[in-house]
Amino acid sequence: SDKLKDVYISVLGGVAWVGQTRPGATVFIQALQRRSKAPRIIDCKRLNTVIRYLQRKHVGIWYGRLKVK
After folding, report:
1. Which of 11, 30, 35, 37 has the smallest count of CB within 10 Å of its CB?
2. What is the rounded CA–CA span in Å between residue 67 and residue 58?
3. DSSP symbol at 38
4. Please, are residues 29 and 50 in contact by the beta-carbon 8 Å criterion?
């Protein structure tokens, strides 16, 4: 349905932003984006799998303290 398609595209857009910091997931995100014109139920399940993977991996950006003289 159109509502499911809109939700799929919205969630996929949010996941695509995560791809900027998680290059390992971009291959899977790109494959899901190819199907965004006419998503199927299997594509929704695969998107959920990618989201669960991204939530499981705890990777952050750490900054060192600058030493000012």
Report:
1. 37
2. 28
3. S
4. yes
Structure tokens at 4: 């499911």
Residues 3-25 pLDDT 10s: 888 888 888 888 888 888 878 88
Q: How far is CA 30 from the centre of its chain?
A: 9
Burial 33-47 (b: 16+ CB within 10 A, else e): bebeeebeeebbebb
- Tokens 């965004």 belong to 36
Beta strands in the chain (DSSP E): none
Tokens standing for 26?
A: 């971009």
**Rounded to two decimals, what is the model's pTM?**
0.70
CA dist., res. 59 & res. 23, Å (int): 12
Structure tokens at 66: 């600058």
Axis crossing angle, helix 2-18 with helix 41-56, rounded to the nearest 10: 30
